[in-house]
Design brief:
Structural class: mainly alpha
Mean pLDDT: 94
Helix content: 40-55%
Strand order of the largest sheet: 1-2-3
Number of helices: 18
Strand content: 5-15%
Bound molecules: s-citryldethia Coenzyme A
Shape: globular
Low-confidence stretches: none
Radius of gyration: 24 Å
């Protein structure tokens, strides 16, 4: 049951001139209360104004909770640190989708189901042939994920819970296959089919790195790291791409199209594209002695340069995922025998400086998940252009869980924000002969 339907006792009052308007205030289980201003325009003829949604709750959700001041991230109440340490990605998928950790039997059945949906329609490979080999893999993902709705009509009726569930399983299962195909296509190698005797992350690594000419043995340390990276990126409350998926889904668009919209939004360097941008920034800095020059640029109001991988809309303290990402980074570098990675040296020194610099402390700018993920993924052999693709593979379950929650919310309606209009007032059409 949602907290909005309970007997509401708290209210908030807005006074505009000589009139006051009272609205219900809802309390969540944890986190800030919300004031329901949905009737404000009807009562007072005025809109609220919050362009970046910095103070706006777009929905009620039971999936993920973030405490930005204390660096806390919970998936269905479980701390990200515990899930990353003790569980695996498909367990996290089950938790995000259905709200509880699976029993052993439920986990077995869920793994079996997802594994047997990992193949894509064979004609999908011909769909790829239309792309240039040097297309950005995220462009390929936006296109191919959207194209899934052309292949799976039998799971696009969003009013049917069975079809919603199948579409969810299909997307969790097929995104890694499409991501691996995007990578193979970009390097001119043949596509590798999934293998049903491999776990999710191992299967993905094999589809990326195996070739038909020889057996490929998945490195268990890298498979574990990949699985943990998927867990860390699985969901994150109402971030830009999740809000895009929710807004797309509110019109009744099919789930494949909604996830394609989420991929498109995630691609931006201020969001999921930051891992690619962070690695490029570290490479541009190049050496530790050039860090002060870039720190100076980051502080310069007249310079659009920002430290990629730093800052967050919600985390005003350390991103808990960044700590786990840093630990994973060291595990992968050790496993790959990379002793002195200059990019890591720059990253560690940049982090040290930023954490002690008054500007970053005052602005509450800490490393976010994207700061260490780029170094880790590069060490695993992924090209920079694939980093956001991997983020999209992981975030698909979060997008789908949030989409399902919205569709199943009886109060949901099409999202349709309004505006503050500052354009021309009404004026008469002028024939071109009279225009100067
Ligand atoms: C992700 O929302 C999510 O949950 C996203 C995500 C997820 O899992 O879905 O966590 C994934 O997107 C992580 C963030 C990845 N992006 C980056 O690393 C790009 C670099 N970071 C910035 O672009 C920025 O920090 C944002 C976009 C992440 C947050 O921007 P906000 O909340 O709109 O903050 P802001 O731009 O208003 O910045 C506040 C101040 C500004 O200074 P003033 O105008 O107040 O003087 O901090 C400054 C900014 O100039 N600032 C930075 C900075 N980030 C903010 N200065 C230098 N370097 C930075 N990285």
């Amino acid at each position: 049951m949602d907290v909005r339907s309970g007997a509401n006792t708290k209210t908030g009052t807005l006074t505009l001139g000589d009139k006051s308007y009272t609205f219900p205030v809802y309390e969540g289980t944890i986190g800030p209360d919300v004031i329901d201003i949905s009737k404000l325009y009807n009562q007072a003829g005025i809109f609220t104004y919050d362009p970046g949604y910095t103070s706006t709750a777009s929905c009620e959700s039971k999936i993920t909770y973030i405490d930005g001041d204390n660096g806390i991230l919970l998936y269905r109440g479980y701390p990200i640190e515990q899930l990353a340490e003790h569980g695996d990605f498909l367990e996290t998928c089950y938790l995000l989708l259905y709200g509880e950790l699976p029993t052993a039997a439920q986990k077995h059945d869920f793994d079996y189901l997802v594994t047997r949906h990992t193949m894509v329609h064979e004609q999908m490979s011909r769909f790829f042939q239309g792309f240039r080999r040097d297309a950005h893999p995220m462009a390929v993902m936006v296109g191919s994920v959207g194209a899934l709705s052309a292949f799976y009509h039998d799971s696009t009726d969003i009013s049917d819970p069975v079809q919603r569930d199948i579409a969810s399983i299909r997307m969790i299962a097929k995104l890694p296959t499409l991501a691996a195909m995007a990578y193979k296509y970009s390097i001119g190698q043949p596509f590798i089919y999934p293998k049903n005797d491999l776990a999710y992350a191992a299967n993905f690594l094999r589809m990326c790195y195996a070739v038909p000419c020889e057996e490929y043995k998945v490195n268990p340390v890298l498979a574990r790291a990949m699985d943990r990276i998927f867990i860390l990126h699985a969901d994150h409350e109402q971030n830009a791409s999740t809000s895009t998926v929710r807004l797309s889904g509110s019109s009744g668009a099919n789930p494949f199209a909604c996830i394609a919209a989420g991929c498109a939004c995630l691609w931006g360097p201020a969001h999921g594209g930051a891992n690619e941008a962070a690695l490029k920034m570290l490479a541009e800095i190049g050496t530790v002695n050039r860090i002060p020059e870039f720190i100076k640029r980051a502080k310069d109001k007249n310079d659009s340069f920002r430290l990629m991988g730093f800052g967050h809309r919600v985390y005003r303290h350390y991103d808990p995922r960044a700590k786990i990402m840093q630990k994973t980074c060291h595990e992968v570098l050790n496993e790959m025998g990379i002793k002195d990675d200059p990019l890591l040296d720059v990253a560690l020194e940049l982090e040290r400086i930023a954490l002690h610099d008054d500007y970053f402390i005052e602005k509450k700018l800490y490393p976010n998940i994207d700061f260490y993920s780029g170094i880790t993924l590069k060490a695993m052999g992924f090209p920079t252009a694939m980093f956001t693709v991997l983020f999209a593979v992981a975030r698909t379950v979060g997008w789908i869980a949030q989409w399902k929650e919205m569709i199943e919310d009886p109060s949901q309606k099409i999202g349709r924000p309004r505006q503050l209009y500052s354009g021309a007032t009404q004026r008469e059409y002028l024939p071109i002969s009279r225009r100067k």
